[in-house]
Amino acid sequence: MNIWKISIKNLFHKPLYTVLSILSLTISIALLISIKQLDTSVKQQFENNLGNIDMVVGAKGSPLQLVLASVLHIDNPTGNIVYKDAKKLARNPLIKTAVPISYGDNYKGYRIVGTTDAFVKLYDVKITKGKDFNKPMEAVLGYDVAQKTRLKLGDTFLSSHGFNDDMGHEHPETFIVVGIFEQTHKVIDRLITTPLESIWDVHNHHSEEDGHAEEGHHHDDEEHHHDEEHHHEEEDNKQITSMLVKFRNPIGLITIPRQVNEKTAMQAAIPKYEMERLFNFTGIGVKAISWIAYIILFISSIIIFINLYKMVKERAFDLALLRTYGASNFQLIKIVAIEGFITSIIAIVFGVSLSQLGLLYIFNVLGKQYQQSIPSTLEFYNVFQIILWVLLVVVVAILFAVIPILKMNVSKILTDEK
User: Fold this and answer.
1) When comparing pLDDT for 173 and 3, which is higher?
2) Domain residue limits, the chain
3) Which of 190, 175, 49, 179 is nearest to 110 (CA)?
4) Most exposed residue of 129, 287, 355, 401, measured as fewest CB within 10 angstroms of its CB?
5) HEC per residue, 43-76
6) How far is CA 139 from CA 115, 200, 316, in A?
7) 3-state DSSP assignment of residue 240
8) Average pLDDT of span 67-86
């Protein structure tokens, strides 16, 4: 007696129930794996992007927006702060590193960040080609930027105002590529870094031209006097978008953010705290989708139970006949169990495949829309846990479905059928 052959024939005996069982199981498995994998991948990527940054200082506004804009570079900044005030804060002995950044332009959708050479230390990144910038209008490309734009060492490019390629006009000042970073899978992969002076020069160019045109009408002595005043005033009024801070010890984390928020015109935000708040908020959606998937899984188990139970009841005569030919209860139960496990294995294969295709599409959309390169983190522990849950509900469905076999009265069934 070929038990496998009988089980497979039973599967095709009621194709509609079989397809419904596989479809509902596939959807629940795909949802559970996708949501867990997406949640894990995004969390790891965001936490990875925080680098060695303990605090962000910027203009007053939403602290989450400040972190998203200045650390993850996926939002607009809250405004600018005076560089002189930021440098004064940076002299605090509790601060180990304070890295100013200034941005507002892009090249083909990739943000151009004016900063200092200390910026790369926040992300532990090395330059694989060329060198770091050391004078204005020199630029170092992130790995993704170099790959997508195909810019090479020595190439020049013009920046555009705003954060999207089609948002604003091009500036006439030319940047030159002097270096390319290694791949890190961090936010720096999709940034173009340049000295702070580059950003100031680009944005002050037109105003300086206007100022010189007006001063041309005065005498030489007056022009020299105005130039000196203009230079000092410009030094005092230089602005940056934000400052990325790393503390020497935990005391700085406890005291400085409160001091900044209460005693200055600036705002301090703690990236790890803001990310935790964000994940707590998105966690509600993750839980909701997970519960929906578990409900579908429960419905799947009921469909499988009904399918197997109907098969046992409808084919009671065939099963009783097998008993008369020497088949044991255990062999009859194996027929039902194999049918249930074939259904679940097909659903697992389809569910895992569907989840990976869905995530590939989602990560592709994120890459195009937010310039985010998120590595897909498939944790086998989570997948194994989900598969165990699926097999458990299938086993329960099988156990309930084989009860009529255990209570089977062979002689009565054969007599009634005759």
Assistant:
1) 173
2) 3-46+283-417, 55-269
3) 190
4) 287
5) HHHHHHHCCCCCEEEEECCCHHHHHHHHHHCCCC
6) 11, 14, 78
7) strand
8) 90
Task: Tally Cβ neighbours within 10 Å of residue 42.
Answer: 20
Q: Do the beta carbons of residue 123 and residue 184 sit within 8 Å?
A: yes
What confidence tier does 166 reach under pLDDT thresholds 50, 70, 90?
low
Examine the pLDDT at 177 and tell me if it is beyond 90: yes
CB within 8 A of 175, min separation 6: which ones?
Answer: 107, 112, 137, 138, 139, 156, 157, 158, 159, 192, 194, 198
Amino acid letter, residue 281:
F
Pull the structure tokens for residue 201: 């020069």
DSSP 171-235: EEEEEEEEEEEPP-SSGGGGEEEEEHHHHHHHHHHHHHHHHHHHHTTS-HHHHHHHHHHHHHHHH
Q: Are 321 and 55 in contact (CB under 8 A)?
A: no
**For residues 304 and 11, is the Cβ–Cβ distance under 8 A?**
no
The neighbour count for residue 345, using CB atoms within 10 Å, is 16
Q: Within 13 A of 407's CA, how many CA atoms are on the CB side?
A: 8
CA separation (Å) from 61 to 269, 272, 278, 302? 10, 18, 16, 52
154: pLDDT strictly greater than 60: yes
CA 105 vs. chain centroid, Å, equals 24
Q: For residue 310, give the DSSP letter.
A: H
Cα–Cα distance measured from residue 398 to residue 240, given in angstroms and rounded to the nearest whole number: 66
- 261, two tokens: 């928020």
